[in-house]
Amino acid sequence: MDGADNRPHVHLFWLRILRSQKKKVIPSIFLRGAEMSEHVVKTTCKSCHGGCRVLVKVKSGKIVHIEGDPSSLTRGTMCPKGLASIKEVYNPSRLKYPLKRVGERGEGEWKRISWKEALDTIAEKMKEYIEEYGPSSILIGQGTGRGYNRYTFRFARSIGSPNVLLPAHFCYAPRLAAFGITVGGRLYCDYHGWGGEYPKTIVHWGKQLEYTNADGEMAVWFLRALEEAEHFILVDPKATPVAHRADLWLPVRPGTDAALALGMLNVIISEELYDKDFVEQWTHGFDRLRERVEEYSPDKVSRITWVPEDKIKLAAEWFATSRPGCIQIGQALEAGNNSIQTLRAIICLMAVTGNIERPGGMVNWVPPETGEMEEFALEVPPPEELPIGADRYKLLALPPFAMCHFESVCEDLLNGERRIKMMHLQGTNPVLAYANSKDVLKALLNVEFISVVDLYMSPTAKYADIVLPAAHWLETDDIYDMHPRFFVSAIVRAVEPVGEALPDNVIFNELGKRLAPKYWFSDVYEMLNYQLRKAGITWEEFKEIGVLARTGKEHYYKYKTNYWREGGGFPTPTGKIELYSTILENLNYDPLPHYREPNESPYSTPELSEKYPLILSTGGRVPYYFHSQYRQNPWLRELQPDPVALIHPETAEKYGIKDGDWIWIETPRGRIRQRARLFEAMNPRYVFAQASWYYPEKPDLGIFESNANVLTSNKPPFDPCIGSTTFRAMLCRIYRCDGGE
Ligand SMILES: Nc1nc2c(c(=O)[nH]1)N[C@H]1C(S)=C(S)[C@@H](COP(=O)(O)OP(=O)(O)OC[C@H]3O[C@@H](n4cnc5c(=O)[nH]c(N)nc54)[C@H](O)[C@@H]3O)O[C@H]1N2
Ligand SMILES: Nc1nc2c(c(=O)[nH]1)N[C@H]1C(S)=C(S)[C@@H](COP(=O)(O)OP(=O)(O)OC[C@H]3O[C@@H](n4cnc5c(=O)[nH]c(N)nc54)[C@H](O)[C@@H]3O)O[C@H]1N2
Ligand code: SF4
Ligand SMILES: [Mo]
Predict the structure, then answer these.
(1) What residue range is the signal peptide (predicted)?
(2) SS in 3 state form for 71-93?
(3) Which atom of ligand 1 is nearest to the CA of 330?
């Protein structure tokens, strides 16, 4: 793949050198050129949220080829990011040694230090701050799930800090919370057919699974199920890559999904299309929901969402009558001012149609023999204090995973007591990932000490005091446990790390040993064995087995058994699916789903809309990048060198923009440049900008040049229950960078 396959003479060259040095023993691997030293490692790709099983060919200690494992759950499929992993492992700009800042913050002057000095310094700093200000003064952060969440949480708990930072209040935590309070656990689309049925109706709602393989489902499973489906409904303001396969497309106005779901519920309930037996026996608060949805007639909802009334009705009818059906909920629904109620409305749709826990519907998977891997974090007692912001956004404090609210942390760092004294950021890039990047950077500069663990000198690492080199997944031994939940899979080190890089789990364990030895392990293998104990196997055995998966009928209808409750029921306070949420009621939030207009829109801010006439959504994913990652990967960057914004041809014409022109996209917070791509399959009033862009090749990294979070707001109102910021529905204007109007 990178050419090395065809160069066995390299090894003959070494053989000659060895002979000329009159070595007595020549290792057998050199005797017959390359073939002797070649082997294949079976492992799990983690270049995105991960999960594809892959075969890695290693020759003389170097990776030469990667391909999908056809015998695996992901059927041998891989995406460009996974395939380009060789160029990540051997990327010349990777961090190789621990570094200590010697110049001013952000100046880029570093000194190489030993791991011992680096880890001792970080641990000493933590001890000092804990002593002076208490453990809450330390923030432990990671980015999106990169497979080590349980170590992050265990570490934070073991040092007593409640302030765990994840970009979760606008990604995944709203889903966990909304499913949690409504049905007692996360539901997944059943694309697998283990119960003898595939979904008849599949809905993709703010989701591009075909690109993102996100949140517990892989594209390959969905595409297989799509072949069996009678109806595929797309709910998205623009056509997605699978739009040509859709039978119905609801081009919803960004940020109005709750109204749409409530409108569909209105149709289903008023036309009596709901599953009466299921509703009667297994749901709580149906009558109050019925009353609530009366406020959302299809014609009113059509005016709010800009989706034609007949399409709303048809979608509701198909979903209710062509069963089983499932709804794939995307992150677009979480990054808004009403994320919890939006998701709750959609979950109510699943419930009243009886599509929960049945084959081909929405199922809460049973974990494999290892048990739930997050137990590894939860077994450490939780901190006593609440995380910053969780007093206001109360669902952030919900067990199992309480976390801080980053916008509140930044507000406190900029204008408050500066309660966070130290941040340890492992695999995250707040300077690009969170709303209002310029404020975020200012806030970070007010933190006394920052340590960062990354593969590269990222825009955030640049401002740290100590930077540690993380090993790539191809250099790591660990247990893969991202969202699929019905399986765990072995991540097996294929090659030694470059330079002195160390795997994340090793770094957590080494820091943990220094600060809270009672909760940490003599080495990483003892830690892996411990996590596998319930399955009765060791790491060495698991490495050979590769995957532990549950793929049978035991997943379905668990509420009819004693699985959650003696005598049956769901793991909620009432034992039923809570259409009317008693948990929200107790927290003084609206117990029933409702609609809320986006903070900025032609209706909520008509004056602003005159100056900023277009509706902007940021962050739809692309197949070649994972957030800010891979801009320095030559294979991937070649496929898409520049940031791209989608605009409609009519809009382009109006503003004198041609396909490929650099344009400014401006909101009241600032402006960024991206290249215009003309795209017809959307409303001319919408603009879609990509997120997470920076330019590793530029000396200043171009942090604010094309980064969509220059445009987003970090000011309230957020989602009242969980604090989500808005990424997908704001107002903007656009114009050509070269001065055209
Ligand atoms: N290749 C790649 N894969 C990834 C990632 C990546 O960066 N690159 N990131 C990972 C992460 S952390 C996440 S959270 C997931 C996200 O993955 P998904 O949840 O699949 O989200 P997106 O790809 O952003 O797709 C969102 C879709 O929502 C639409 N949309 C925008 N605004 C709205 C709206 O208001 N309502 C509705 N109904 N739709 C809207 C967009 O047009 C887009 O088609 O992907 C994960 N996978
Ligand atoms: N405007 C806008 N902003 C968004 C979004 C949006 O849609 N629109 N999406 C949001 C979402 S859903 C999310 S989840 C966040 C993502 O936010 P983050 O996860 O913080 O994303 P990145 O900017 O990619 O930062 C990750 C860093 O971790 C490093 N890294 C990668 N793998 C590893 C590893 O294995 N170990 C270590 N130690 N480091 C590693 C990378 O090099 C990179 O520097 O962004 C959010 N930001
Ligand atoms: S989808 Fe994710 S896990 Fe699969 S090959 Fe691509 S990057 Fe790897
Ligand atoms: Mo995410």
Answers:
(1) none
(2) CCCCCCCCCHHHHCCHHHHCCCC
(3) 19
